[in-house]
Amino acid sequence: MTATSQPAGSEPPAAAAYRIVMAITSAWWQLGALRALVDIGGLDELSAGPLATEELARRCGASPELLAKVLRSVAALGLIRTASPGAYELTDVGRALAGSSALAGVRFHCDPEVWAAIGELPEALRAGTAPFVARHGNAYEYMASRPETAAAFYDLMGREFGPVAEALASAIDFGELGTVVDVGGGEGGFITAILRAHPDARGILADLPLALPEAREKLAASGLASRCEVVACDFFTDPLPAGAGVYLLAHIVHNFADEQATALLRAVRAAMPAGGKLVLVELVLPDDDAPHWAKDLDIRMMSFQPGGERTRPEYAALFTRAGFTLTSVTHLHQGQSAIVGVPAA
């Protein structure tokens, strides 16, 4: 066999390259079709039952001819199907989508600016920062003036990380740690799961004002308002609540580059007593070439946030710079891990 010949039945490199690139490109087109159908309200209209394309177009204010093309594409994904000639209905998978974090993800990631940010990666590579960050500061500052995008984001976080929060509450005995400060706790999904699982624990949810109304509602609806204080806090400019047994940062540190992340963890260290614990919930990047969701999310993060995902050694180094020692990494759910540290001796 020569250096350029292929084993019998194998795919030539050029053919494999074409197949890979076209699969990626087609997925982008498919997301565009789904985005369009969601954006005009097509999935919502179909949730009540089958509709003819012309009637769906009328309700959504769309061109029947172009909508037919979008419906055909989305049907090929298995989310809708032909109910009768010229009419479509949701499949079981499509109905499940309507009540899942995936649909919230479509609504958030297909916000016009968030959507466009992924196409600006070449500029981000050249400049060392994403154009989105230069325009808006970060995703949270952008959402502060866009309530619909913010609502989709917090819906996504609440739905996607519910099982992660429950796994975290089972993995760590928060009851013996006393008060839990949920730094950047958002709508309260993590602190709610912890307080439900540990009746002896108390909580403090600290976040920007944008997230607090929903957090108060969630805690009140769960009967936990008396056990959890909700405080407005910009953790880069305001002191964190001091003296708690554990400080939780769930999907917070990956938003920031090393300098800001170190400053944030140092602020936590300043507020923490000697016997306290630091708990991060993050994806941990593997050190190999195998496919992993964290690698794809890292690219998404690069398009609109100054931070990104990290490997275990990178988290250990970050902890050391901030005055902590990393003691354990425990897998929770769907690639998410609890990264635990204590004040360095």
Structure explained in plain terms:
With 345 residues, this protein is α/β, with parallel strands linked by helices. It folds into three domains: 14-98, Arc Repressor Mutant, subunit A, CATH 1.10.10.10; 102-156, no CATH class; 161-287 and 307-343, Vaccinia Virus protein VP39 (Rossmann fold). The chain contains 17 helices and eleven strands. The chain has helices at 13-39, 42-46, 53-60, 64-76, 92-98, 101-109, 112-117, 121-127, 131-136, 139-143, 147-160, 162-171, 189-197, 212-221, 258-271, 293-304, 312-322, and strands at residues 51-52, 80-84, 87-90, 179-183, 202-207, 228-232, 246-250, 277-285, 310-311, 324-333, 336-343. The strands form two sheets. Strands 4, 5, 6, 7, 8, 9, 10 and 11 form an eight-stranded mixed β-sheet that branches. Strand 4, helix 13 and strand 5 (202-207) form a beta-alpha-beta unit. The chain is globular. The mean pLDDT is 90.
Overview features:
11 strands; 17 helices; globular; eight-stranded mixed beta sheet; alpha/beta; Rossmann fold; Arc Repressor Mutant, subunit A; 345 residues; single chain; three-stranded antiparallel beta sheet
Estimate the helix proportion, in percent. Answer: 40-55%
Structural class: alpha/beta
Write down the CATH topology of the largest domain: Rossmann fold
Please give the number of β-strands: 11
Going by CATH, what is the homologous superfamily of the largest domain?
Vaccinia Virus protein VP39
Classify the beta-strand content into a percent band.
Answer: 15-25%
User: How many domains comprise the coordinates?
Assistant: 3
Question: What is the second-level CATH architecture of the largest domain?
Answer: 3-Layer(aba) Sandwich
